[in-house]
Amino acid sequence: MEGNLNQDEDSQGSVSKREVRRFRCEVIVPESTEVFTAEKVVEYVWPLEGCGEHYFIQEQISQYLGIMSFKRKYPDLRRRPLEMQERDYLKEKGLVSEMACDLGLTAVRSEDVLDVMLVDFPSKFEELQKLLRERKENEMKERGKGKSSQSVLYTSI
């Protein structure tokens, strides 16, 4: 009978440990009722200096793909909470809202997300790839314009 008492005490102790555990939830709060399109998905490089990696914001990808819990559906993807400087950078550029920052944002490597999308969401993958190519082309054109106007400035002096 004493053995049973010890077993009950142990099981009660483990129950109380479970009650103390707290899990970090993935929170998605749509900023409006409109559909979250590829145009709203942000890809960025971090850190800015040196050789940074390309990232998406997990909460945006989740909304774009229509997945309630991207973290639960794809638990093996590498992810990390945004650093404070990273969050401030994205907020200053207007890429994320104050509300989203307050709720907490998670960075996921672009390469990993695109691999998942290619297999599980081929049409969304194509749509996003097309948009990312267009953004890259526009960025290159803008850089080219900036350099050509600078060279004109320097040659006219």
From TrEMBL:
Residue numbers spanned by region Disordered: 136-157
Residue stretches of biased makeup (Polar residues): 147-157
CDD domains, alphabetized: WH_NTD_PHF10 (cd21085)
Compositional bias per record (Basic and acidic residues), positions renumbered to this chain: 136-145
Protein name in UniProt: PHD finger protein 10
Top-level taxonomy: Eukaryota, Metazoa, Ecdysozoa, Arthropoda, Crustacea
